[in-house]
Amino acid sequence: MAVDHMKFDYALATVPYGHLWRRHRRAFHQHFSTSQVQKYNGAQTKEARMFLRRLLDAPDDFAHHIHHFIAALIMSVSYGMTVQETNDPYIFRAQQANKGFTDAGVAGRYLVNNFPAMKYIPSWFPGAGWKKTGEYFAELNQLVSRKPFEFVKERMADGTAIPSVASALINDLPAEGSPNREEEERVARNVAAVSYLAGEDTLASTFLSFVLVMCLYPEVQKKAQAELDRVLNGRLPEYNDRPSLPYINAFIHELNRWHQVLPSAIPHLTSESDEYDGYFIPKGTIVIGNSWSILQDPTVYKDPERFIPERFMKDGELDPNVQDPSVAVFGFGRRICPGRFMGDSTIFIVVASVLSAFDISPPLDKDGRPIVPEVRFGGDLSAHPLPFQASIQPRSRKVAEMIHNLELSEL
């Protein structure tokens, strides 16, 4: 459904393994490898500061601010574009596409995935409403992948383009008329577009879980803030602070482990027959990795339902003997998430910035009693916290003034 009918064929997770997949993977890696993501630290820090400003001005709208922050960051890095505060057409289309993709990834959601012959049923036939859904998303995906890419090409032509992943990819394209121009431009367009599809939903779920956890574990929040206060001495964090913040790094490990955004990862298709633990797995079998089970294994992580960053620490440093959650958080094998380094660095600057500036707690009812949110997750392919309320307040008047007075050049 997702590939053949909805045309999500530009996502790395859906491109069939082979030459074209390797070409997509190589192009993405050139811009989002562990050595390359550092060049985006400036954009990440800038957007994180703007996120703090929005939280200060309208803390109750934290969920909206989270989605806007991620969208603004991805569009800035991928296309050099500045998005509108509300009703941005690029963001609206991308969010709709994302919802369609995660919906299509749910096992059993569309029967055509189980009975491929159904694709021959005419669209007017009873029960074939999925065909209209497919047509809608096929058209939407054309807009999602082409519109911002064409915007960058136009800006490059008139000399006003801001450096971005898309502009770099376009600069590297072979000349017009070259035999491989069409394929290379398709790869470039897809690599730029998939950044949003891969990053928005997963990061939003992670940051919402972060707010939820802080409402539930105030003692963890205080410990993280104590480390930040000791290292930062009243300023906002930078990336070069990260090696001096072992508890924050353990916190991020635990955040990734405690709530798996993709509990069953992305389904894989075996490229050849195999045998595992006495089971024969034929070529072409859909294999689903149980990330949730790996990261909730009580023999590896004691009391896995609890949020305990200390499980990853020993003698004040990260303990290399404890299984790193990245073994399952970002997928498996050749199709492990290539944007994982960008995601990790984004999580760091947001978690460190928010905890250095704000106190997060449950809201109070009319009698002054805390309304502790329930741990409830919903969603489809990805799991995200169901809507909840939180109180987000600046830690001091001085902090509020610092955020309010950030120079525009810093933003």
TrEMBL record:
Name the UniProt record assigns to this protein: O-methylsterigmatocystin oxidoreductase
UniProt key word Thylakoid: no
Keyword Iron: yes
Cofactor(s) listed: heme
Coiled coil location: none
Keywords: Heme, Iron, Metal-binding, Monooxygenase, Oxidoreductase
PANTHER family, per database record: P450, PUTATIVE (EUROFUNG)-RELATED (PTHR46300:SF7), P450, PUTATIVE (EUROFUNG)-RELATED-RELATED (PTHR46300)
Family named by the database record: Belongs to the cytochrome P450 family.
Binding locations of heme: C337
Protein's pathway: Secondary metabolite biosynthesis
Molecular function as annotated in GO: heme binding; iron ion binding; monooxygenase activity; oxidoreductase activity, acting on paired donors, with incorporation or reduction of molecular oxygen
Domain of life, per lineage: Eukaryota
InterPro entries cross-referenced by the UniProt entry: Cyt_P450 (IPR001128), Cyt_P450_CS (IPR017972), Cyt_P450_E_grp-I (IPR002401), Cyt_P450_sf (IPR036396), Cytochrome_P450_fung (IPR050364)
Biological source species: Leucocoprinus birnbaumii
